[in-house]
């Protein structure tokens, strides 16, 4: 079976957690959020039912987002970016949400 040719490229974020794991996540949460947004955008553009957005190492934990959760995740991140007044990212998230319609 031939592999489906994707319209866009996306590589999951490989997040190396140190001994203070949760502190690392909190310190780099914006990086994780952006990876999730761009991963969902990739999934929408390529009509994927799920997208692999992060890998946490050395734990070997892979994070996926299912199609049923794309909108909820994007809505939550839009609220977050509005709250911190990052309007550039608000525009990015809104553009991805509009692709769902």
What does this structure look like?
- This protein is an alpha+beta fold.
- It has one domain (13-100).
- 51% of the residues lie in helices and 18% in strands.
- The protein has a 3-stranded mixed β-sheet.
- β2 (50-57) and β3 (61-66) form a beta hairpin.
- α2 (29-45) packs parallel to α4 (87-100) and α3 packs antiparallel against α4.
- The radius of gyration is 14 Å and the shape is globular.
Summarize it.
The protein has about 100 residues and is α+β, with helices and mostly antiparallel strands.
| Estimated radius of gyration | 14 Å
Question: Tell me, what's the shape?
Answer: globular
Question: Looking at the chains present, what oligomeric state does this protein adopt?
Answer: single chain
Q: Mean of the pLDDT scores?
A: 84
- Low-pLDDT residue intervals, each spanning 5 or more residues: none
Count every beta strand, where a strand is a DSSP E run of 2 or more residues. Answer: 3
Provide the succession of SSEs.
Answer: EHHEEHH
* Beta-strand content: 15-25%
What portion of residues is helical?
40-55%
Sheet/helix structural class = alpha+beta
Largest beta sheet: what is the strand line-up?
A: 1-2-3
Secondary-structure topology with pairs:
Layout lengths: L12 E4 L4 H7 L1 H17 L4 E8 L3 E6 L3 H14 L3 H14 L1
Parallel strand pairs: 1-2
Antiparallel strand pairs: 2-3
Helix pairs in contact: 2-4, 3-4
